[in-house]
Specification:
The protein is α/β, with parallel strands linked by helices and 433 residues long. 42% of the residues lie in helices and 16% in strands. It binds beta-D-fucopyranose (FCB). Residues 9, 12, 157-158, 161, 214, 283, 343, 389, 396-397, 405 line the site of beta-D-fucopyranose.
Length: 433
């Protein structure tokens, strides 16, 4: 059976940042830094999903999907990162999970979607090896509490963004700009993933466990050997840096050499990081165009703006054919048992007219990417599910609330939800599948 779903993440939708015993995460801290987030937005209220989850579950049911991919907020359930569980926080996820099941929707959580407890950051965050062990303890506790009702688990979402955007470029929490810290963060995130796989399997051998990686294929406009090198480095930095350790138990040699830095690997780490997985969660949004640039850091390439291409409201190129190629490539290169598209979607400047939101651009993006995915599936790639990003408009990290990815529009002042025309398209497509 093919699984149809929708995705969200805790910090982007829940709000209730100071309620129910939740402690601050690195995103609460980061969003307070002047200039860090567009318009000074933060996730204090977001979509108020903490209080409106019943309405949101009704919308998920209305869409007719099989599964709901959400994330558990670590600082809501273990406010200090380590130590006592917060019952009020756990009760919220009990209600959410039970509410999904009552509606015939399979709850499918991610354990880490970037909202590290600030208390753990204060001890070094992902730069500190201990964080990986605390993450595994947290994973174990969630499996014990919810494992009677949850079968599918994603450990970590997009370590690329946590490691590089958070610790090398500083454009996401915790806002650090240092290559060695980014490398350490990568290794400890992946180690945390591996330890969590073991921790989850300790609770039940029946769980299906995976990790979500985002892939951004690269092309170049030139045809020189240097341009090809730019593509190789971009692919290494964005994609292989994370997928190779997980599926091949080693970091890509060309990238390690080009960095000229040590990865803090201890004996046994690569075995843990490459534990066999039941599935790969794959996120795809766009392809990038790169050019060689000897002076660029940390690797000698830069992003360039390809002329005359279709772009979303994020400025990301729309290229569905890349999605088909990517799926085939990942299947050949890494042979995951199964692939689930855990995120795919697009942002546009939606407007409400007469109480309705017509978003033909999003519908077209969705339709073409679904076709592209099924093309890969028909060619033998074991892609067995698709989760649209996102159920509702939400806090788009450093872009704040201006970028809208939802199938369902959120009018933030009133918190009214309005299904966009793309939501009707998705609903029909699922119904007719
Ligand atoms: C992904 C994130 C998700 C959302 C989409 C647009 O990188 O996992 O939270 O921001 O991009």
């Amino acid at each position: 059976m093919f699984t149809w779903g929708v995705s969200t993440s805790a910090y982007q939708i829940e709000g209730a940042a100071n309620e129910g015993g939740r402690a601050p995460s690195i995103w609460d801290t980061f969003s307070r830094i002047p200039g860090a987030v567009a318009k000074g937005d933060n996730g204090d209220v977001a979509c108020d999903h903490y209080h409106r989850y019943e309405e949101d579950l009704d919308l998920i049911k209305w869409l007719g999907v099989d599964a709901y991919h959400f994330s558990i907020a670590w600082p809501r359930v273990i406010p200090n990162g380590k130590g006592p569980l917060n019952q009020t926080g756990l009760d919220f996820y009990d209600r959410l999970i039970d509410g999904a099941l009552e509606r015939g929707i399979t709850p499918w959580p991610t354990l880490y979607h970037w909202d590290l407890p600030q208390a753990a950051q204060d001890k070094g965050g992902w730069n500190n090896r201990d964080t990986a062990y605390w993450f595994a303890e947290y994973a174990h506790a969630m499996a014990e509490r919810f494992g009677d009702r949850i079968k599918n688990w994603v450990t970590i979402n997009e370590p690329f963004c946590s490691a590089w955007l958070g610790h090398l470029y500083g454009v996401m929490a915790p806002g650090i700009k240092d290559l060695q810290t980014g490398i350490n963060a990568t290794h400890h995130l992946l180690l945390g993933h591996g330890l969590a796989v073991d921790a989850l399997r300790q609770v039940s051998a029946d769980f299906k466990v995976g990790i979500t990686l985002n892939f951004t294929p690269a092309i170049t406009l030139g045809d020189s050997a240097e341009d090809q090198l730019a593509v190789q480095y971009a692919d290494g930095f964005d994609n292989r840096w994370f997928a190779d350790p997980v599926f091949k138990a080693s970091y890509p040699k060309d990238i390690v050499e080009a960095f000229g830095k040590e990865v803090p690997i201890q004996p046994g780490d690569m075995d843990l990081i490459s534990r066999p997985l039941d599935f790969l969660g794959l996120n795809y949004y766009f392809r990038q165009t790169v050019a060689y640039d000897e002076s660029a850091k940390p690797l000698p390439y830069k992003m360039v703006t390809a002329p005359n291409v279709e772009r979303t409201g994020m400025g990301w190129e729309v290229h569905a054919g890349t999605f088909t190629e990517l799926l085939k490539h990942i299947n050949n290169e890494y042979q995951p048992k199964e692939i689930f598209i855990t995120e795919n979607g697009s942002a546009w400047d939606d407007v409400v007219v007469d109480g309705k939101v017509d978003d033909p651009n999003r519908t077209s993006y969705l339709a073409r990417h679904l076709d592209a995915m099924f093309e890969a599936k028909n060619a033998g790639v074991p892609v067995n599910g698709y989760f649209a990003w996102s159920l509702i408009d939400n806090f788009e990290w450093a872009y704040g609330y201006d970028k809208r990815f939802g199938l369902i529009y959120v009018d933030y002042p009133t918190q009214k939800r309005i299904p966009k025309s793309s939501a009707y398209y998705y609903r029909d497509r699922i119904k007719n599948s």
